[in-house]
């Protein structure tokens, strides 16, 4: 059985994104979370298929300009480290992942 664990840093990223999108329109923050959690859930089937960026596997969200950065801790455990806005400079993304 494959397990997915979100680290505190990823949960904080998701909450930050939710608050941002909720300020854009009522209910948009919830839609953001639903969309990103669907991407994260897809890792059960598609883990390791994603390109490595800055030493992490990266899955690009379909509906929002965000990326999920994860690593395989073991064959049955996916660790999600960060969920970052892709509109930021690559150097900031690199720093956020350090």
What fraction strand?
A: 25-35%
Percent range for helical residues? 40-55%
- Structural class category: alpha+beta
Mean pLDDT: 95
- Spatial strand order of the main sheet: 1-5-4-3-2
Span of the ends, CA to CA: 29 Å
Low-confidence stretches: none
List the secondary-structure elements in sequence, H or E.
EHHHEEEEH
Write the CATH homologous superfamily. Answer: RelE-like
* Number of domain modules: 1
**Could you name the CATH class?**
Alpha Beta
Describe the largest sheet: 5 strands, mixed
Instruction: Specify the overall morphology.
Output: globular
Tell me what the structure shows.
β2 (52-53) and β3 (56-60) form a beta hairpin. 44% of the residues lie in helices and 30% in strands. α1 runs antiparallel to α2 (28-41). It has a single domain, classed as YaeB-like fold (2-Layer Sandwich), CATH 3.30.2310. A 5-stranded mixed beta sheet has the order 1-5-4-3-2. The mean pLDDT is 95. With 98 residues, the chain is an alpha+beta fold. It is globular.
What is the compact description of this entry?
With 98 residues, the chain is of the alpha+beta class. The protein is built from four helices and five strands.
SSE layout:
Blueprint: E1 3-6, H1 8-24, H2 28-41, H3 43-46, E2 52-53, E3 56-60, E4 66-74, E5 77-85, H4 90-97
Parallel strand pairs: 1-5
Antiparallel strand pairs: 2-3, 3-4, 4-5
